[in-house]
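Box 3.1 A note on notation
Throughout this textbook, protein chains are presented in two layers. The first layer is the amino acid sequence; the second is a token string describing backbone geometry. Keep the layers aligned when reading.
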Amino acid sequence: MASQLLNVGLSLKASNINGLLTLDKKIDGILTYNDQDVTTDTITVAHGSATELITTSAGADIYVYLKNTDTVNKIKTQTSGNVNYGHINPGDFSFYCVKEGEGLKVQATTADIVLEYITFKKA
């Protein structure tokens, strides 16, 4: 097992928000992950029931990148205990850390969709 570094950046920039303020923020971070525990895949996510992507027995925090490839339908994200994280709009992506023991389920809201994802186990 070798630890690797994942450089993560977020840039938020907008002017004249509600005529009041300007947003210009760049955040950079470095995350450490175990290079033996990386998963990349594309799956079809059903709309009739949730698909468990990360189990509660993962054994560590898991960084996850999710990309909704659909052009119409949303993906609902929730813990394995059915507590909602939120949703990913059509064509959008999400990147966050799933806490050890919570797991992650995904479910399409209206029709089956294709989801691209990568998981990185925190080192």
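The radius of gyration is 16 Å. Strands lie at 3-17, 21-45, 51-54, 62-68, 75-78, 84-88, 93-98, 104-108, 113-122.
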